[in-house]
Amino acid sequence: MAERKLKLSPLDPVWMRVCDEAKAAIQDDPLLGGMIHSSLLHHPTMEQALAYRFSFKLASAEMGEQILREIADQAYAEDPELGAAARADLMAIYDRDPACHRYLQPILFFKGYQAVQAYRVGHWLWSHGRRDLAYFVQMRVSEAFGVDIHPGARIGKGLMIDHAHSIVIGETAVVGDNVSMLHSVTLGGTGKEDGDRHPKIGNGVLIGAGAKVLGNIRIGDCSRIAAGSVVLQDIPRNKTVAGVPAKIVGEAGCSQPAVSMDHKLTGCLDCG
C-alpha cells in the first residue's frame, strides 16, 4: 500500500469534531460501532478515512479495495488541496442543508458528498495522465451513486449537491467555488461538437432541481437558476433566470444565493 506521508497539523478541528460525533453515535446505537470504527475512528486523519470510503464504496469484482485504497492514499498524500476541498465541501453541506446536523453525516451517508470526493480523486488521476483509471472511477461513481461527473471537469471548493440523484457534469464544464445544486441538474453540451463545449458556472451560483445548463456559456457569479429551467445563453452575475428557454426574471435577491438556498423567485432571504 502507498506510504502515507501526510503532514497535517495535529490540530484539525473538522476531523476532531467528526471523531467526537462518531464516538457519540456509537454510544447512541452500538450496532453502528463496526461501521463507524472502520470508516472513521480507525483512521488518524480525515484524508485516510476518505481514502477508505472511496475504496469501500467503489470496489467491485473488476478492481478490489486494496488497489483503490492505494490510488486514493497516493492522491491525498501528493495533493493537499484534495483534503482542503473535502473539508470545504463538508462545511458547505453542514451550513446549507437543513437535513445535515452533524459533520459525520455526509462522510457516512450522503451520496452527493461521497460522489464529489470520488470525482476529485478521479480528476487528480486525469490531471496526472492516468486517463483510463480516471474513466474507471467515473464509471463506478455513476454506478454506485447515480452521479456522472467527467473527470476532466473542474470543480471548485465548497460544492453542495443536495440529494445528488441524476447529476451530469460534462468534460469541459467548470464550476466555481461555493456553488449549490439540487438533484437532476445537467451541465452538458448541445450536440456532437468537440472541444470546449460545456458551461462555466461562476462562484456562489444556486442551481435548482432539474435545471439544464447547456453549451459553452457562462453563468455569472451569485446568480440563481430556477428549478426546471433550460439555460442556453450567458447569464450576467447576480441575476435570477427561469423558464424554457430560461430568461432573466429579476435580480438574484441577495449577495450569496448558494448559501441562502432560497429558491423562491420573489427574492431570497437576507444572507448578510
Please characterize this protein's 3D structure:
This protein has 272 residues and is α/β, with parallel strands linked by helices. It folds into two domains: 10-147, serine acetyltransferase, domain 1; 153-272, 3 Solenoid (UDP N-Acetylglucosamine Acyltransferase, domain 1), CATH 2.160.10. It is 41% helix and 14% strand. It contains nine helices and 15 strands. The protein has helices spanning 13-28, 33-41, 46-58, 65-78, 80-96, 104-109, 111-127, 131-145, 257-260, and strands at residues 147-149, 154-155, 160-161, 167-169, 174-175, 180-181, 186-188, 200-201, 206-207, 212-214, 218-219, 224-225, 230-231, 239-242, 247-251. The strands form three sheets. Strands 3-6-9-12-14-15 form a six-stranded mixed sheet. A five-stranded parallel sheet has the order 1-4-7-10-13. It has a four-stranded parallel sheet with strand order 2-5-8-11, with no helix packed on it. A hairpin with a 4-residue loop joins strand 14 (239-242) and strand 15 (247-251). Helix 4 (65-78) packs across helix 5 (80-96) and helix 5 (80-96) packs antiparallel against helix 7 (111-127). The longest helix is centred in the first third of the chain and has 17 residues, at 80-96. Mean pLDDT is 92; it is low at 1-8 and 267-272.
